[in-house]
Design goal:
The protein has 419 residues and is α/β, with parallel strands linked by helices. It is 31% helix and 17% strand. The protein has two domains: 124 residues, 2-Layer Sandwich (GMP Synthetase, Chain A, domain 3), CATH 3.30.300.20; 191 residues, Rossmann fold (3-Layer(aba) Sandwich), CATH 3.40.50.
């Protein structure tokens, strides 16, 4: 039986604007947002969509006593000074032309764990939409960051790291990563070239060093590309700022040679970037925009992410769990938002969350002596929620132990994997 200990509360009031919240339906609709298909989260009607057949206006009947051509203006003959008729401002032709200029697509970011995918997503969006910690396998579900480039809307997909799986949770995260890669119009492999360089130097080998995770990623991408599932592919050599200056010019060539060993072809672009400092990002985004297909936008132009408010709050708390507990934290920990209600008086939000761990004995690690640790986590989570949503919140945090969590599909889904 699960044990519940260490509840604590905090209240703060801020302005009621929240740029990160996306409201397409009720909160219950977004409770399991990670299991929704990528193209089914849209409920709004696009401009320029044709009317239904039964909604067309009927033509007005002509008056019987009125000559059919009495008021008709003579047609203009095409000549040297003739001009084409321009559509009226705001007409359906004008809207259709504006829609034809729009482009939309998904850009998947895949790669080994801790290669900097979440940091890159936050850099591209210009705001923190994905949690970032020094721990591996921090990202557990697909996170979309929405970016506007003039008439092009790009949904960047941050995915869990790909690695050698062991249990159900590992298989769920890797399956989610490969699934998001299949959905993307473009696929970008993110590598930590600093690790590839320094590990090779430490072992006395010629760099780049290819770890087991890198081998799994490249072999999997090569297999999918042969089947035609991945067409537009590029490689991002992240953390280029950590490479010595004398070795940076050779990064593109060495990564290209590595891709040739896996028969990925010579048409794969390689971009040396620094997600932390923004180096090389403009060249990468230009490559992405040029390959986005034409089509209407799937999200409003002021949205930053498709994550629900419940999921954002749970992710912020899980990030603070990683940072506060560090080495003591069991990796099976999960956070589930059970209640998310808005106050009618001051606009603040009351959030109730359950912190789930694998065994009851781990509850004490999370709560701490006299509830000191869970209180510290709650204060840090409140600060993170304020920074992300700019909205007041009131929260109850409870720690629960879930026996055999890894074997329960419901608990694995609650951990954000989407099974």
């Amino acid at each position: 039986m699960s044990e519940c200990v260490g509840a604590h509360q905090f209240v703060v009031t801020l302005p009621s604007t929240c740029p990160l919240l996306v409201h397409y339906g009720s909160p219950e609709f977004f409770k399991d947002v990670s299991v929704l298909p990528l193209r089914t989260c849209v409920t709004h009607r696009f401009l320029g969509q044709p009317r239904a057949q039964n909604c067309r206006r009927k033509s007005r009947p002509r008056l019987p006593n009125r000559p059919p051509s009495a008021c008709a203006r003579a047609p203009v003959q095409a000549g040297k000074n003739a001009r084409a008729a321009l559509p009226a401002e705001g007409s359906s032709d004008d809207i259709a032309y504006a829609e034809s200029e729009k482009k939309f697509g998904f850009a998947s970011l895949i790669g080994p764990s801790n290669s900097g995918k979440s940091t890159l997503l936050n850099r591209l969006v210009g705001s923190k939409v994905a949690i970032v910690t020094p721990k591996v396998q921090t990202t557990r579900c697909r996170i979309a960051g929405i970016v506007m480039y003039d008439q092009t809307q790009v949904a960047y997909l941050d995915t869990p790291g790909i690695f050698q799986t062991r249990g159900r949770l590992d298989r769920a995260m890797v399956k989610s990563a490969w699934g998001s890669g299949n959905e993307g119009d473009t696929v970008s492999i993110v590598f930590d070239v600093a690790e590839m360089y320094f590990v090779a130097r430490k072992k006395g080998l010629e760099w780049p060093f290819v770890s087991d995770a890198i081998d799994i990623v490249l072999a999997g991408v090569a297999k999918k590309r042969k089947r035609g599932r991945i067409r537009q592919l590029c490689v991002l050599a992240n953390k280029i700022d950590a490479i010595p200056l004398a070795e940076r010019d050779a990064v593109v060539g060495k990564i290209s040679n590595l891709l040739g060993d896996y028969d990925l072809g010579d048409d794969v672009a390689v971009f040396p970037i620094s997600a932390l400092h923004g180096e090389g990002i403009p060249d990468f985004t230009k490559w992405i925009v040029d390959r986005m297909p034409a089509g209407p936008w799937m999200y409003p132009d002021d949205d930053l992410t498709d994550m629900s408010a419940r999921l954002i709050a749970a992710e912020v708390t899980r990030e603070k769990l990683f940072m506060c507990l560090r080495n003591e934290l069991p990796y099976e920990v999960a956070v589930e938002t059970t209640s998310f209600t808005e106050s009618q008086k001051n606009g603040s939000i009351r959030i109730t969350q359950d912190i789930l761990v694998r065994r009851d004995s781990q509850v004490r690690i999370v709560t701490g002596q006299g509830g000191a640790m869970v209180k510290k986590i709650g204060i840090a989570a409140r600060s993170g929620t304020e920074g992300n949503s700019r909205r007041g919140s009131a929260s109850d945090a409870e720690s629960q132990g879930a026996p055999k969590m890894e074997r329960r599909c419901a608990s694995v889904r609650a951990m954000g994997t989407g099974l």
